[in-house]
């Protein structure tokens, strides 16, 4: 399966002040495959940035759960 991901912070519809912003979420894949990268776009897909994955890397073939990620970015 392709990697699936969800944003958990900021919440949908939240007012975000200009300046530094932390975007957080989780991602998962299928078949015991590890999530190795999550790319995030804050401008409707024009540009993408790699988020930082949090936690330990599982043994190969043992990645059955989701992984947390976060990205520090400037909010316009």
From TrEMBL:
PANTHER family named in the record: SULFITE OXIDASE, MITOCHONDRIAL (PTHR19372:SF7), SULFITE REDUCTASE (PTHR19372)
GO cellular component: mitochondrion
GO molecular function, one term: molybdenum ion binding
Domain Moybdenum cofactor oxidoreductase dimerisation span(s) in chain numbering: 1-73
Names of the cofactor(s): Mo-molybdopterin
Keyword vocabulary terms for this entry: Metal-binding, Molybdenum, Oxidoreductase
Biological-process GO terms, alphabetical: sulfur compound metabolic process
Name of the featured protein: SUOX oxidase
Pfam families linked to this entry: Mo-co_dimer
Coiled coil: none
InterPro entries assigned: Ig_E-set, MoCF_OxRdtse_dimer, Mopterin_OxRdtase_euk
Top-level taxonomic group: Eukaryota
């Amino acid at each position: 399966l392709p990697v699936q991901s969800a944003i958990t912070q900021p919440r949908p519809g939240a007012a975000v002040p200009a300046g530094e912003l932390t975007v957080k979420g989780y991602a998962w894949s299928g078949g015991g495959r590890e999530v190795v990268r999550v790319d995030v776009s804050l401008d409707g897909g024009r540009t993408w940035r790699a988020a930082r994955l949090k936690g330990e890397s599982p043994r190969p073939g043992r990645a059955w759960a989701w992984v947390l990620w976060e990205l520090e970015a400037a909010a316009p």
